[in-house]
Amino acid sequence: MMDRKERILAFMREDAYKPLLFSELVTVLDVPKSDIGLFENLLKELEEEGLIFKNRKNRYGVPERMNLVCGYLQGNEHGYGFLIPDDENMKDIFIPSGGLNGAMHKDRVIARINKKGIGDKRAEGEIIKIVKRANKTVVGTFESSKYFGFVVPDDPRISGDIFIPKDEINGAKSGQKVVAEIVVWPEKRRNAEGRIIEIIGDKDEPGSDILSIIKAYNLREDFPEEVIREAKSISQTVTEDMIKGRRDLRDLTMVTIDGEDAKDLDDAVSIERLPNGNYRLGVHIADVSYYVKEGSPLDKEALKRGTSVYLVDRVIPMFPKELSNGICSLNPKVDRLAFTVMMEIDKSGRVVDHEIFESVINVNERMTYTDVYKILEENDEGLIERYKYLCDTFHTMKELALILRKKRMDRGAIDFNFDEAKIVLDEKGVPIEVKRYEMTIANNIIEEFMLVCNETVAEHFFWTNTPFVYRIHEDPDPDKIEAFSEFVHNLGYTLKGINKIHPKALQDVLEKARGTKEETIISTVMLRSLQKARYSHINSGHFGLAAKYYCHFTSPIRRYPDLIIHRIMKEYLKGTVNPEREDLLNSRLPEIAKLCSERERAAEEAERETEELKKVEFMKKHEGQVFEGIISNVTSFGMFVELENTIEGLVRISSLEDDYYVYNDKSYSLIGERSRKVYRIGDVVNVMLIKADVAARRIEFTIVDKNNGENDEKALESDGKENGKPKRKRRRKTPDEAVLLHVQGKKKKKKTKKAKV
């Protein structure tokens, strides 16, 4: 089926092709009479996927040959939108409100380009076909009137309220959070129509805020009955029959290192120093694929979810607790089935030899990042005494982790420097504290060990030419890099080799900016200049890690790509990958990789939204109070100020009443016309919280200490390398983490900060 579709597309993409009628296609492609029905279905499927387009004259062609673009619509709270093309080499297309023609945020659409992009100006277009609707339900606040009601969507990118007829209100009352099912899709100048299918609760009721986000992203906390049944049928102990053919590592000293509240422990590590001076590093991963068989209810549900989701107050797991917290979790002092990668690493950090095999293990201790840090850095006597037999192991792990990190940095991996927040909630879900999360050597040990393991696995299976799922991070768009180069040049920095950028050139800029006023904004703008990491059946390397080969192998409890490559790896090691199986994998993996990438991004958005919600909620009770902060960004409409606890808010330019301020786009500063005061990135300012809008997830400040603006106009001419902000300890993140991707990534949401790449 896939081959037939590809042949049809290849034919329509030929230069000589002109749009043809169905009957003409049948003749030209010599479709047998018996296959005409099948051929018609293939064309319908391709049309539904947006890969071909049938015009008003019923002629078929590919969109790109008809001045059309297929992609996803990204809405905007002001009523317009942007088409994000399927072709990643194309720039986004601006869609004015009058050109949406009933399309909604996230819909898959086809647009006609009406105005081509010139220079920095985007192309402009209009939606001519909605290929697939994304918002079958909408979460929002219900408001009622005498004869009807309407739902105001929580997501501001969904423009237009949902009209609810009186007989479809179903008991909802004004001010309640609800789920509305769309019955009639919006059209030009006409809102969508729907019916209330679920009442979440009053908008101010504890828990309804997070539950609204869960519903909005179609996240399921519960599992289907057949999935629960299968999970409960799985034995919670490892029997002798299970370990036949596995390497017995139960006598090998190994530990897990996670956050205090982690329950799904899917990786254990061991280390030995060899007589030749090298290290033998063992990474032992929970063998989830032993329990979750391909095509089973557990497997199908895991694929739908794609990933576990770690919200600020709860975890929505990929598997039921019987697996995620039970038999698949590498709990201490019990036998567990594992998939082991044993690596010999020399003193320069090079993997000189490795083995991959199924094993049975018995973890010695369940360690926390805090305790390992105290042993290594604080020499905590109580912990050293308690874990006396492991202390040498921890010191050896630290030694190897630092070697691996140096090797990674030397080859040019990008090391972003962003601060994470730790949000503490009370038993009712109310935020009582927001503070910076500190990364320690204990986190770094696990991060580096998982990175080298994932690289080793990816390289091994790349050379076997086996169907596989890689974690890729493509080279950045040259136009974006050129824009970034101009941006940092205005701040006094030089980006080398922008025509064929190497990650090391970007890392050099980050190093030079380390500790300066503009460090945060340079990191942020650089991040936006890079592609997003994703899953793919084709290996194209990982730009941010400066790695030729990379995959996600280490978290099968909470990431589906890890699970599927475990299966493939086992089949290859056992010699059961025959040509038929290869064909099946090659046909399925592209779609699985795409789905997993989409589910990962949805999870990240939901996670980020819950964090933003709780930050604003936390600040709500501090309205009217004054805080010290640092200007983190300056724009034409105002400046963003970041507080010590990582919370950021906007100071609108209209609130600066002591002068008329003009935005200088070269120095990223606001300059007072009369006073010549200057507000620029990195300045320390005192701000008053004037509004914390929970519904809009928005924080607004106003400057209260006018003397914090610089009076010296010469400051605009500086190279931006002064050190004007308070010293603050920042943690370093790996590149893919900053590009929104994960090695152990999802644990970050549980405050168990493993590497996220």
From TrEMBL:
Domain S1 motif intervals: 624-704
Biased composition (Basic and acidic residues): 710-725
Coiled-coil segments on the chain, per record: 592-619
Record flagged with keyword Cytoplasm: yes
Subcellular location: Cytoplasm
Biased composition (Basic residues): 744-757
One Gene Ontology cellular component: cytosol
Protein's UniProt name: Ribonuclease R
Lineage: Bacteria, Bacillati, Bacillota, Clostridia, Eubacteriales
Encoding gene (name): rnr
